[in-house]
Design the sequence.
């Protein structure tokens, strides 16, 4: 029995990219929904999954178009990854922007980070804009850019898992194979998003947050979890010769 | 492949359906109080503030809407295979999803509230009877619209994913957007109108939610009335924008040009966010002096 090691490695890499991407997404959890913490007012897994799975829909579209119209080359592979990444980036930026409109024009708070004194991108002073009894509020520019990068990694990671499973299935037009690959990619996404969420512990503002230094731990745990997922997924998709 | 003009019309229709779905999804979570702001409804009774706000948090909104939409789309798919017309199949499927939402709402509300007996929080039966139909109605509209644009994507745009999987993924996205945008209006503004405008909620006031309405005691219906003025429509625009922009770029452009078009949209949104940030900083704060010391 031979299992293709490259497929296993790429699915694992996809999982690690998802785990990494989650750390970039600025989420404030329940406190952010009350404008008590910086970031988007929802849970880590929720937002990361929403973005990543939107990317998966885009990637599925592109893969189907390229794989059914001829041979699937390496440049096609990168194009599908990019398409998934951009799909996730669009979802997360639209969501953060609309959330920002609610924070500024409805709740009435300035977007501010409580973890740095100055925004590393715009240079705006942050600490004096943090209102009393809160850990910041809204989505400042540094968190917005960080969230965009998170969408890129999450979307690319989810797409990589999907493409690899489809390549193993080797039937780009078969609805059963597509459904299996799609739901497995979703599952791998959730496994890694939840693992990363434990590492974050509720809230994170983005790459400038001190919690971001915990990323290496998440990479190791996501690597192990994704490897296990890949070992289960590859034979189910028919990747044993 | 369909021609670009027809494609644009289809994408616009999908965007419109997604906008209605997003608004209905958020308003459903306001009537029934789901997701993050519900932590305050749950906390209120424990802080000695018994209330008449509907309390249900079945799960996070994304998995919840993933389930309702997948249920609706699965039922619709089965009926379509049996030869039923598209509209009837989706309506019946969405009704099945709404019934599940209603069932979970009743059990979640009664279970959660009954567990707060020690905090003297009553279970108001008139609230169960009054709120659940409204929750189901909003849920029905959201599921119907999500399954409908998923059907268009699957059948007309020829997306390879099966209809239930597409609806499941879009349901998760709708829930993620609803809990990220509209819920902030409900959580940070409507629940805490007793706190000063222009700053975040001081953590010391957690649980002290507004319990009196414009007339009588406040309930979920009063909350949805207020949130329909901003939170709901903004959520609709967010889901509509996501569906429209993502599909627009792949309908109008092909290959790497579609990727580039998506990146341009992202960059425009980063700059737009900066403009809003600057306006926010001018309008509110600073809350301390330049040394970060005493309150200004």
Sequence:
């Amino acid at each position: 029995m031979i299992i293709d090691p490259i497929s296993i490695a790429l699915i694992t890499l996809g999982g690690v990219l998802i785990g990494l991407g989650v750390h970039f997404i600025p989420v404030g959890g329940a406190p952010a929904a009350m404008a008590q913490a910086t970031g988007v007012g929802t849970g880590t897994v929720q937002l990361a999954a929403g973005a990543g799975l939107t990317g998966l829909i885009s990637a599925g579209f592109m893969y189907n178009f390229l794989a059914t119209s001829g041979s699937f080359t390496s440049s096609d592979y990168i194009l599908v990854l990019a398409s998934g990444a951009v799909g996730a980036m669009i979802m997360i930026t639209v969501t953060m922007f609309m959330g920002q409109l609610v924070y500024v024009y409805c709740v009435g708070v300035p977007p501010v980070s409580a973890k740095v004194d100055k925004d590393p991108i715009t240079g705006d002073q942050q600490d004096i804009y943090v209102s009393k009894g809160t850990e910041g509020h809204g989505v400042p520019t540094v968190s917005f850019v960080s969230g965009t990068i998170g969408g890129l990694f999450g979307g690319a990671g989810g797409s990589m898992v999907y493409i690899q499973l489809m390549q193993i299935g080797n039937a780009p037009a078969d609805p059963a194979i597509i459904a299996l690959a799609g739901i497995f990619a979703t599952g791998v996404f959730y496994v890694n998003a939840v693992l990363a969420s434990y590492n974050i512990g509720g809230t994170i503002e983005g790459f400038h947050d001190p919690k971001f230094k915990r990323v290496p731990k998440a990479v190791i745990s996501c690597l192990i979890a994704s490897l296990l997922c890949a070992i289960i997924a590859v034979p189910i998709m028919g990747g044993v010769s | 492949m369909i021609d670009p003009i027809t494609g644009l019309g289809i994408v616009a229709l999908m965007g419109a359906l997604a906008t209605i779905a997003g608004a209905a999804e958020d308003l459903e979570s306001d009537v029934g109080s789901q997701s993050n702001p519900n932590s305050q409804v749950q906390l209120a009774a424990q802080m000695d503030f018994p209330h008449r706000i509907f309390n249900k948090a079945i799960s996070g909104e994304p998995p919840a809407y993933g389930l309702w939409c997948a249920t609706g789309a699965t039922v619709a798919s089965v009926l379509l295979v049996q030869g039923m017309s598209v509209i009837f199949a989706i309506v019946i499927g969405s009704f099945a999803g709404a019934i599940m939402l209603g069932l979970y709402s009743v059990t979640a509300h009664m279970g959660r509230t009954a567990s707060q007996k020690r905090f003297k929080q009553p279970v108001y039966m008139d609230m169960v009877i009054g709120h659940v139909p409204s929750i189901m109605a909003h849920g029905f509209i959201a599921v119907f619209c999500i399954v409908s644009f998923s059907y268009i994507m699957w059948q007309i745009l020829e997306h390879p994913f099966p209809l239930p999987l597409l609806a499941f993924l879009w349901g998760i996205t709708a829930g993620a957007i609803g809990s990220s945008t509209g819920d902030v209006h409900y959580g940070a503004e409507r629940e805490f109108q007793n706190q000063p405008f222009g700053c975040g909620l001081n953590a010391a006031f957690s649980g002290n939610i507004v319990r009196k309405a414009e007339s009588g005691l406040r309930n979920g219906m009063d909350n949805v009335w207020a949130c329909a003025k901003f939170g709901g429509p903004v959520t609709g625009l967010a889901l509509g924008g996501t569906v429209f922009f993502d599909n627009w770029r792949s309908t109008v452009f092909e290959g790497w040009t579609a990727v580039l078009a998506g990146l341009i949209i992202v960059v425009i949104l980063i700059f737009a966010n900066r403009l809003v940030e600057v306006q926010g900083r001018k309008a509110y704060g600073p809350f301390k002096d330049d040394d970060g010391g005493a309150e200004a």
